[in-house]
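Hi everyone,

Forwarding the result from last night's run.
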Amino acid sequence: MEEKVFVDQTKHSMVGAIEHLRQELRGLRAGRASSTIVEGISVEVYGSQMHVKELATITTPEPRQLLITPFDVTNAGLISKAIEKANLGVRVSVEGKVVRISFPELDESRRKELVIQVHKKREDCKVVVRNIRRDANEKLKEMKSGGVSEDDVKRIEKHVQDMTNLHCKEADEVAAAKEKEIMTV
């Protein structure tokens, strides 16, 4: 495997871990209603699992409300039950053909719980990045036995470690921004 391709694949995996963290943190409610909170919730309809965003239009009529309008009105009850089952700390009600979700005001204890979740998701991301580094280093050892010089392996290992440090720092920054958002809204 060519060195540049190897480094690019490793970097791509680490960037993917950071993007996953960003997506996970978008799902944490920080005072405002956001469709990302419910988009990925699975609903069992038509004999299979589908995400809410595949079954309905999600709008934000007010800052603390979401309005879910199912494409098939018979799914409103199923969507409502799936959201309640997700235990998001919101009030869900079916009003005719739509599902209305009301978000309560965040109190101090709930904010602290959300910050704890942010920290856990950050640490999970950093573990993934470090696992990517470990896997890359194992592949480098195989490459060394396959004819790549020891100097090249050491140089690539250092580059992979620098990428690991950079992405762990980025995970810290992303989490810190979300924590600030949660505590100030």
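The mean pLDDT is 87.

Cheers,
N.
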